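Hey all, sorry for the wall of text incoming. These are the four entities for the joint prediction.
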Amino acid sequence: MADDKATADRIRSDGAITISDVARLAGVSKKTVSRVVNNEATVSDETRQKVQKVIAETGFVPNPQARALAFRRSFLVGLVYDNPNPQYVVNMQRGVLDALDNTDYQLVLQPCDRNSADYPDRILSFVSMHRPHGLILTPSVSEDEALTESLRRLDCDYVVVASVPLDIPQRNIRTHDRQGARLAAEHLAQLGHTSIGHIHGPPLFRSVGERLEGFREGLEAHGLELAPRYIREGAYNFASGVACGRDLLSTEDRPTAIFTGNDEMAVGVYVAAREAGLRIPEDLSIVGFDDTPIAERIWPPLTTVRSPIREIGRAAARLLIGRKEPEFSDLSEHLSYALDLMTRQSTSAPLKL
Amino acid sequence: MADDKATADRIRSDGAITISDVARLAGVSKKTVSRVVNNEATVSDETRQKVQKVIAETGFVPNPQARALAFRRSFLVGLVYDNPNPQYVVNMQRGVLDALDNTDYQLVLQPCDRNSADYPDRILSFVSMHRPHGLILTPSVSEDEALTESLRRLDCDYVVVASVPLDIPQRNIRTHDRQGARLAAEHLAQLGHTSIGHIHGPPLFRSVGERLEGFREGLEAHGLELAPRYIREGAYNFASGVACGRDLLSTEDRPTAIFTGNDEMAVGVYVAAREAGLRIPEDLSIVGFDDTPIAERIWPPLTTVRSPIREIGRAAARLLIGRKEPEFSDLSEHLSYALDLMTRQSTSAPLKL
DNA sequence: CTGAAAGCGCTTACAG
DNA sequence: CTGAAAGCGCTTACAG
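and here's what came out:
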């Protein structure tokens, strides 16, 4: 009783309970409390329960800064991205935050630009300064094998999200862009299109090649060809969609359908079609990629390949933190994501069959 | 020489230079190095230069975890938001990241939901656990005075972004939503509209009242009235824009122009107009708010009030970290932001004058 | 203007 | 299975 009061008095006035308080209250050493907190096996059930009881009663939460200093590793998870599409970024963030919810980890943002002078250095200096628990790399940075090698050298854990197998499976969340693009091709082929164009993104993204090849394969499966004169290179943004769309639609034997590497460029093609006096889908069918919100809001609503970005972000974060947390360890079935085709009103059979 | 080698040998093999290394190499105490790093005044020029030279040569970067533990304050800046608009979120993030660039601070994301059961607690427990350098609060969380009071009690610094004066000026970045809405009203009045509707957002946001009142004031300045039967409450999202648009346009004496509280709802009104067989802008003029990317991508491009969100994010972060960094201290002229009207093709004179 | 000691709240390395 | 000591890399509080 008197003892309880005396110990209570020693608890700091700002209300923060420390490991020493818990140790004293439970009548064990700090090291034992540490063992319980870190879920180490070698603690007797009796001791563990005694400590857990005190932790629950006091509301003790270990100080992340102190743990980080001692562990030489912080509780930050870095999300590294160079995707110009805000919707992609937000969805990925949401997925990661879903997984980090109710854990000790915090999400810190690391946008980057592979063309910038300080490109890998900024990321690497974040890593060596802050020693994050790990990094989640999204395309196209995820495809920079020089970067991942540097991370390994710095002993920094990471997960890559990519459309191709890039790293050991335990570090790779795969999206089947090739298969998704094939769905787009089959859809257009089944509608009866034969003159079909494609606007792809910057070749820096490995997904660009995957989508192109998947699309080509899908057409070939229906005896169709993707003619080189119907292929254009865009920049994954709206303006390049407008420009490439104008270009493709200005030729005499223009395509009757266009598949774009993302929704942003598809929306650009809408503008080019309008300028050319072409109705969608009667005169021109359009298929996008990503299923971002604008796909549903624009008129006519855009047929597009759906990529479950939020789920992918969640899986990536779980994979990263799951290496230590046992409850997240069974992820084998989530390492790879198939894509769907969202069929809307921007596609129909071509008029001039 | 032999001495140099001996000291060099003592530097840890993982390449991390510590304050002790710098102190030894510069022939001063750790405390003096600490003074230089933290820009404290009471160091002689000679000593300061000696230390800075060693810091430059060794590439010493103070360990943020150790500093955080000793300072009882981390180098994290939390961005707290409950805005459902991804574009707003991304732009705000970009602005904050602009300001944090080349500083020691990292951005951590704290999305929240004021209707959730763990609403303020999750934020407060982040604060008491991670002791962030400060928080940036955006609408509508920024308007929760119970939250800011709790933050002050926890001795947590913060900056609020809001359309009304909410806190002491040193903690408040203001956006002049009222004035922006007035611009929208004047534009429609000058075009000759007299039956004008308004779809506002959830009253939880103070900006909703500001925009409504500013719009009303702008109309009244032109002798026009905002009739209660032309006012609807939306949810700041696409679906509610469609629903409120349908509702407003289904009446016999429907308005010839609609001002919506954000672009998302404006795009919803496009759908309702299309369903009702109304042409934009000939039969119906629409004005949005925010100037998000969709405003330029949709057809016809949307006239909307532009809010410089990225700049606001930058100013908020500079204000927060500027309390200590002298180079950011002159911010008086950036504490308040006027809005512009982006006039595009969704507005014109009404047909039935 | 400068420094030696103690401390921030944890974990590691070691011992038993 | 458990603990005492030392250490992580800084800053605070104090002394001079």
